[in-house]
Design brief:
four-stranded antiparallel β-sheet; 39% strand; alpha+beta; 4 strands; Alpha-Beta Plaits
Length: 106
């Protein structure tokens, strides 16, 4: 897990207001270069029950070196007992876009 690369962190939120708050705070704190927020429907098993919820998916674009800070920020500012925080390492991308990400999320 290289710390000089890039990653996309996925997370979900129970509502649009909360999702936009997280997205804005991550960008303002320069923990992310960009956060995309979109409505989704989730089906999952939680505490022995099957649940279905409308949620908002956050695609958080950041540098690998910022991942731990992003994870910590989500844990501290999320209402879920166990929030989704999944790191997807970026193995390639448009050089100009990756340069912009590095400049923006640092």
């Amino acid at each position: 897990m290289s710390e000089d690369g890039f990653c996309v962190v996925t997370s979900t939120s129970p509502g649009e207001e909360h999702a936009m708050h997280l997205a804005g705070a991550l960008v303002e704190r320069r923990l992310a270069a960009c956060v995309q927020v979109m409505p989704i429907r989730s089906m999952y098993r939680w505490k022995g029950e099957v649940a279905r919820d409308d949620e908002f998916l956050l695609l958080i674009k950041t540098t690998s070196s910022r991942y731990r800070e992003v994870e910590s920020f989500i844990r501290e500012n999320h209402p879920y007992e166990v929030p989704e925080v999944i790191r997807l390492d970026v193995t390639a991308g448009l050089d100009a876009y990756l340069s912009w990400m590095r400049e923006t999320a640092s």
